Amino acid sequence: MSTLRCLLSVTLLSWFYALECAQPVWAEGPQQVIAIGDHHGDLFYSLATLHSAGVIDQNGQWSLGDAIVVQVGDILDRGDDCRYILDFYHKLGQEAEAAGGQVIQLLGNHEIMNLGNQLRYVTKGDFSLFGGRTNRAKAFRPSSEYGRRVRQFPLVATVNDTVFVHGGIMPVWAEKGVAELNRLAAKALAEENYWRAPVW
């Protein structure tokens, strides 16, 4: 059994008996839409939030059918479990797709900081999961698995008539529209120009 599977099993069992700690946010439409905020490296409350919102069952499996889940960024930093949460969402996205649903993950400022090797909010436990600071930094380079995966996250997403973004959009950027904002953000990340608007 993998380390991730063991950790998920223990965590799922422990929070199953805990108080549910979050309420779902959804929009009416042809499909249920649930938005999930910052996880910041806390696997326990990430799973508790997803379970409370009905996204996963007590075994940690997708349970929303054709619904759409939007995770609005900031999975990374502040907690020790960032790698496990990224891997869990990757698995969850595959399960959602198989059921006719969708998981959309957005860039938050902490994802962009990590892509730019700004690691001041990374914990010792998080570094340890990657085998140290150097390996943690390499893991989010463009040629690495996590680096490639996170760079594919859009900055902004629309579902039905709702716009989702991590921290808001300044009017001067909103006028450009969602597609252009995502194009500009992807261009900035590809050029490793992490501090250029519209990502900030």
From TrEMBL:
UniProt-listed SUPFAM superfamilies: Metallo-dependent phosphatases
Any one GO molecular function term: hydrolase activity
InterPro entries in the record: Calcineurin-like_PHP, Metallo-depent_PP-like
Species this protein is from: Eutreptiella gymnastica
UniProt domain Calcineurin-like phosphoesterase: residue ranges: 33-169
UniProt KW keywords: Signal
Protein known as: Calcineurin-like phosphoesterase domain-containing protein
Signal peptide: 1-27
PANTHER family documented for this protein: SHEWANELLA-LIKE PROTEIN PHOSPHATASE 1
Pfam families hit by this protein: Metallophos
